[in-house]
């Protein structure tokens, strides 16, 4: 795991960034990528609105920046990704938008998780010493062309739950990323009682613990890699088939130069309200509340 802190004059939405990976180089690269996102998506880098444009040239969202202070309907950094190239940033942003939509739909009861096998080599790679923690994997079957993974770890007795989610056209890469995110979340259980992260950690734990019995009783998944060919084309073809609009916004900051893209899909909910306040987003009303956090609502569309 790597941590980055920004000390420059350029305004950032956060001066902290983290990254994980199987080695120091990949963890540092991810932390720097997250910092590039922090520096690129706010009004400090883009004084004027940055629209998200759909495949037919239509404006899908009038302004894709993250505004400070962020309102409850602001998308935050959801659906944003950096990459070495614009193409890499674009598909990474699409993966994140799909991942968060699947998570929000599952949380609200609109998508049933399916049990999956967490590859033993992944656990051995990251769990380098003996641990009493249990690691579990489910798939969130929102799309055929993308594997969306939900990983929960706990102390073996439904205590100290940590969560990670990720999406990718390659099931192994999706599971790897979700596991790394869950392992990062475990660090919160090492925090002292008065640490500012404790309140959110405990709220997320309580909400996940109430869902764990259903998850443990879920049926097994059948992995569909979605066929061969360009993953971006396959995913976008599936979105077309579902009648969904989507678009991309180029949020690359001129003074930084690292490609940063936001993907928007107005017809799917955001996970941001859940991640910000898991206790308030809990319960039967979550599906209705999620609808108000669509990107279209965020811009009055």
From TrEMBL:
<dbReference type="InterPro" id="IPR003776">
    <property type="entry name" value="YcaO-like_dom"/>
</dbReference>
<protein>
    <recommendedName>
        <fullName>YcaO domain-containing protein</fullName>
    </recommendedName>
</protein>
<feature type="domain" description="YcaO">
    <location>
        <begin position="1"/>
        <end position="301"/>
    </location>
</feature>
<dbReference type="Pfam" id="PF02624">
    <property type="entry name" value="YcaO"/>
</dbReference>
């Amino acid at each position: 795991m790597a941590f980055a802190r920004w000390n420059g004059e350029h305004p950032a939405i956060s001066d902290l960034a983290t990254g994980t990976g199987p080695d120091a180089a990949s963890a540092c690269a991810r932390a720097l990528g997250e910092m590039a996102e922090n520096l690129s998506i706010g009004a400090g880098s883009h004084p004027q609105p940055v629209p998200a444009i759909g495949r037919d040239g239509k404006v899908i969202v009038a302004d894709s920046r993250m505004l400070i202070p962020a309102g409850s309907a602001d998308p935050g950094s959801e659906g944003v990704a950096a990459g070495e190239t614009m193409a890499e940033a674009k598909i990474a942003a699409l993966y994140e938008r799909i991942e968060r939509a699947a998570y929000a739909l599952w949380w609200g009861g609109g998508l049933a998780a399916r049990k999956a096998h967490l590859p033993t080599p992944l656990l051995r790679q990251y769990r380098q010493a003996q641990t009493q923690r249990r690691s579990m994997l489910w798939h969130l079957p929102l799309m055929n062309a993308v594997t969306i993974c939900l990983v929960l770890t706990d102390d073996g007795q439904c205590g100290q739950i940590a969560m990670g989610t990720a999406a990718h056209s390659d099931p192994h890469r999706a599971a790897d990323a979700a596991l790394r995110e869950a392992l990062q979340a475990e660090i919160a259980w090492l925090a002292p009682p008065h640490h500012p992260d404790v309140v959110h950690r405990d709220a997320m734990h309580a909400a996940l613990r109430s869902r764990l019995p259903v998850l443990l009783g879920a049926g097994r998944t059948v992995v569909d890699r979605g066929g061969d060919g360009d993953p971006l084309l396959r995913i976008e073809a599936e979105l077309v088939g579902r009648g969904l609009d989507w678009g991309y916004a180029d949020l690359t900051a001129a003074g930084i130069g690292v490609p940063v893209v936001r993907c928007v899909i107005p017809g799917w909910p955001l996970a941001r309200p859940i991640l910000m306040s898991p206790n308030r987003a809990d319960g039967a009303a979550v599906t209705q509340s999620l609808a108000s956090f669509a990107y279209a609502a965020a811009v009055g569309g």
